[in-house]
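Deliverable D5.2: sample structural annotation.
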Amino acid sequence: MKKYILILFSFFTLNSFAQFTTVDMFNVPSNIGVSENGYYYKDVSGYFNQFVGTWQYQNGTTTYTLQFKKQTFIKSYPHVNKTYQRDYLIGALKVVKNGVLIYNDLPTLNLNLTHAVKYKIFSMTRAENFSNCYMCTYPNQRLHLSYSEPNNDNYAFEDLGFMMHTYTQNGVVKLRVDFLDQTSPSDYTNFKDPDSPPTKTSIFMDFGIFDFVKVP
């Protein structure tokens, strides 16, 4: 019975792939848009692979744990009259401060959500290197990710994101996360009820630049 189920699953999977034309998501031909019907935007070069796994940053009594997973052939944000697939790097965060668990979103990576935007951390695009791209070795090494937290009613925290890239220092692979403050005092309003102050006045992860180390 299991054999027949596996064959049936493989048939539907191959049939789904056959409906799409595969292109390199980081080298899309000029005659094809970035969200065209019938295309599968694939991480052909395996660029996302360097980020997959669990990374940890510790400073005194504060510990951040970031975990990343590569999701292949996943639906993009639902567009009207558009059907295309894309590879994504999705992530989750765990925060411990003074020995107390403040936030833990890691279990969400075990969920098979239908769209990447339903995860709290997901890849956006590959970005150019600048002076703060520490030890970057080739163009467009940094990855821009969207970052959000649950129960947010504060406009200031509505469109957050960070840049990251890996590098090797003294034989140790590290992940540099650049999470700079992108908020504005004028944004501190409640988008659910503009007439009342937002209930969320801070986020779990502090703004700053952090060097994570990969852990088992």
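Annotation notes: The chain has one domain: 46-79+89-215. The longest helix spans residues 2-18.
The annotation will be released with the project's public dataset once the embargo ends.
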